[in-house]
Model the fold of this input.
Amino acid sequence: MYTVTVVLHGDLDFFVRKRHGPGMLTCTFQGRRSVKDLVESLGIPHVEVNIILAEHHPVDFSYLVRAGDRLDVYPLTETPPIQDAPRLIPPFHDDARFVLDVHLRKLSRYLRLLGFDVLYDERLDDRDLAEVSTVEDRILLTRDRRLLMRSGVSRGYTVRDTHPPRQVVEVLQRFSLRDLCRPFTRCLECNGRIESMDTAARESVAAVGQIPPGVLSWCREFYRCSSCRRIYWKGSHYERLTQLAGTILSSGELYE
Ligand SMILES: [Zn+2]
Done:
């Protein structure tokens, strides 16, 4: 039997508050154990951990915990006062892409509204979600921490908030995504790219009745999803979405 001290930084005590109390934990174990196993045994998915220090020195997930160690564990949003500590979360590309579990439908639409590539499909089970995340290099967003503990998942995040508009602010903040937002470039329904329609295409579509005559009488600009062919125009729905996108992007909670 041996004992270690684990210091959780940032909001990582979100995962352990009920069982252990916030901040600093004392843990007792038997046998050899990697720091990755130790962190996940506390209920913290390893994909939430960006930097680990053992006795104030950076280590990776394979580090074998020693008796008496002090382990400092940092999420993506916190940095220790040590230069060049290796990051355990892989760096993101300029086009952050997501896959969301079935409980986050509204969040999927908000992220698409802001132009992010979001895979959301209610037919995907937990195994599929983990596989898609790995194969397509998508950030897996969920409220189920156990989904993020599945082997192979290397990018993911447990959404803390339960209210969809606050969830999207939380995700933008967590991954520093505000500069990557491109509102109104993705189809809310299918994630396809939205493109402007030229006059000829517009008239042919109107001919088969996809644009109501009342809208055609005043609206000159139409857009179409390149995938599902859904038509968009700047009507009252657009006004509401514009207002919502503005609210999300100007939220005072971002980058305080
Ligand atoms: Zn579409």
